[in-house]
Design brief:
The complex is a heterodimer of chains A (273) and B (256).
Chain A lengths: L3 H4 L9 H29 L5 H26 L4 H18 L1 H16 L7 E4 L4 E8 L3 E6 L4 E5 H6 L3 E2 L5 E10 L5 H15 L10 E7 L4 E10 L3 H18 L19
Antiparallel strand pairs in A: 1-2, 1-5, 2-3, 3-4, 6-8, 7-8
Chain B lengths: L9 E5 L2 E6 L2 E7 L4 E8 L4 E7 L5 E8 L12 E12 L3 E10 L1 E7 L5 E7 L7 E5 L6 E8 L1 E2 L10 E10 L5 E9 L5 E4 L5 E3 L1 E9 L2 E9 L8 E3 L13 E2 L5
Parallel strand pairs in B: 7-12, 14-18
Antiparallel strand pairs in B: 1-6, 2-3, 3-4, 4-5, 6-9, 7-15, 8-13, 8-14, 9-10, 11-12, 16-17, 16-20, 18-19, 19-21
The chains are: A alpha+beta (273), B mainly beta (256).
Chain lengths: 273, 256
């Protein structure tokens, strides 16, 4: 008597309560197996892979197993997916119109994963959005960038995909530039030698080859401006930039080379001159 | 041979207190009342490192030895070392030449366990100027390497103690023209470092260099070779965190 309920049909669809229950159990089983597979993958295989590949495969394994179990469940219970596909297609069009941006974000996320203009873990900059930091995740609808101050910015995948992306990940090194002004009376060659020695000695992360380079860029109002360019390992900006100007200033001070204040010489004329 | 004022490489048993002196570096290890070994290191820039070793045994043994220069200022590279020769070497066509060069080292401190195994405990350099980076290749596709500016040595000359080891390089030029070599870049993790007990003498495995032409490009293939002249007095230094990996690498972005 109690089991009769399992044979009851749901709204004349040909599906019984029992078959629906079995379908749910099989899908639930799929979720559990998906989670176990995900755990095994994360512990045994992911550490040996690049971070972005590992994260993409992790998602693929989890959702792939669930989809396989879902299909197996519907097939084993004789549920006709044809109707669902037709209904799904129709619903897809309706939802597509209603949620264009959601779909667009999802597809952009897919393209971001396939094209890989940037990888998870890379330091990136989106100049249009004034966002820079470490790309920590590309998920279904959005990407998350952890800025250098620790805050996390969520960017819709569509915006991420269509933005200009500046990344340092393709090269193992990057360059940092600063401008230093010395007084007009100073010997430029001597100043360059002093700065170069100081950088090589004190900025541990600056590369020895290619070494620091110096360009005289401007004969400015108050000073001769020299552009100092230092190469260093890609992720070590914080080891170089905070000390670079201090090291240069200390070295110039020690050698008595003047870094001038902005100054203007004013001439006062008279009418009979 | 060790300079009188400095401690030599080797193992040290510590029962109460141990003081080690190296160029620009001082190490003190002593037992505290709670049976804890306290480790203190100070370098030339007055940076201090303190560590503790809670220990149930009454004695502790440490090994001070040369290690590969891959850890300072930070482990960053693909295990490549870039040796810039302070004078370039000209190798005539179809000829072979052998040279001895300085090879930069770091100093490792290992804890020797009762079963003979060794745990990497600390590492430092006696000359921070030699813990630097360089790029081999162009900025868009070059390889980040550890960097050492090195001099050629004569057979009887000792390299600067605690800063350099000795390395033999055999260069074979297979080309029909003479070639100048100003830099050598190669993966180093597979190389062993050896030292003489109670001295500052260190030696690293040799390398064999072959200059070839591959599709109109001059390349330099570098092969690892065991230190050929080692005898039973030379002791193999334990490895630090670096894994011994044989990596294939060919210099194809020039070697002037």
């Amino acid at each position: 008597m109690a089991f009769e309920i399992f044979d009851a049909q749901i709204m004349d669809s040909g599906m019984t309560v029992g078959s629906l229950l079995i379908t749910v159990i099989i899908v639930f089983l799929g979720v559990i197996i998906g989670r176990i597979a995900r755990l095994v993958f994360k512990k045994r295989f992911a550490p040996k892979m690049p971070v972005d590949t590992a994260k993409s495969l992790d998602k693929l394994i989890y959702y792939g197993i669930i989809i396989i179990f879902l299909l197996a469940a519907t097939a084993s219970q004789g549920i006709d997916i044809g109707g669902l596909v037709v209904a799904g297609g129709f619903m897809g069009i309706v939802i597509g119109f209603a949620a264009q941006s959601v779909v667009s974000n999802m597809i952009s996320g897919l393209f971001l994963m396939i094209e890989k203009p940037v990888r998870q873990g890379d330091n990136v900059e989106l100049p249009d959005s004034n966002v820079s930091g470490k790309l920590i995740d590309i998920s279904t609808f959005s990407s998350r960038i952890q800025q250098f101050d620790g805050t996390v910015v969520r960017i819709p995948n569509e915006k991420m995909f269509t933005s200009n992306i500046r990344t340092f990940a393709l090269s193992e090194i990057r360059r940092s530039d600063v401008t230093v002004g010395i007084a007009y009376k100073e010997n430029i060659k001597k100043a360059i030698v002093v700065m170069k020695d100081a950088i090589i000695k004190n900025v541990t992360y600056s590369l020895m080859e290619p070494g620091p380079t110096f360009w005289v860029t401007e004969l400015a109002d108050s000073s001769v401006n020299i552009w100092v360019r230092v190469w260093h390992p890609r992720d070590d900006l914080a080891e170089v930039m905070p000390i670079l100007l201090a090291v240069i200033k200390d070295a110039l001070d020690k050698e008595g080379i003047e870094i001038p204040f902005p100054q203007r010489v004013m001439w006062k004329g008279s009418s009979n001159e | 041979m060790v300079d009188d004022e400095y401690s030599g490489f080797g193992q040290y048993d510590i029962s109460e207190k141990l003081e080690l002196r190296l160029p620009k570096t001082e190490i003190n290890i002593e037992i505290k009342e709670d049976n804890r070994f306290s480790y203190y290191r100070k370098n030339s820039e007055n940076q201090e490192i303190r560590k503790s070793i809670p220990q149930s045994d009454e004695n502790i043994c440490i090994e001070l030895c040369p290690i590969l220069p891959l850890h300072l200022p930070a482990k960053k590279t693909n295990d490549l070392i870039f040796l810039r020769l302070d004078e370039s070497i000209f190798v005539g066509k179809k000829s072979t030449a052998s040279i001895l060069v300085q090879f930069p080292i770091e100093i490792g401190v290992f804890i020797v366990n009762s079963d003979g195994s060794k745990d990497f405990f600390d590492c430092f350099t006696c000359e921070p100027m030699h813990s630097r980076f360089a790029l081999y290749g162009t900025p868009d596709n070059g390889k980040l390497c550890m960097y050492g500016k090195v001099s050629l040595l004569e057979e009887s000359t000792r390299p600067e103690p605690y800063i350099f080891a000795k390395m033999k390089i055999t260069i074979t030029n297979e080309l029909n023209e003479g070639t100048s070599i100003g830099k050598i870049v190669f993966p180093v993790t597979h190389h062993n470092v050896y030292y003489l007990n109670d001295t500052s003498d260190a030696h690293i495995d040799d390398i064999e260099v072959f200059i070839k032409k591959e599709s109109a490009l001059k390349t330099m293939k570098i092969k690892h070779a065991e230190y050929s002249k080692k005898d039973s007095n030379w002791k193999l230094a334990p490895r630090a965190a670096t894994k011994a990996e044989k990596i294939k690498f060919t210099m194809e972005w020039g070697f002037d």
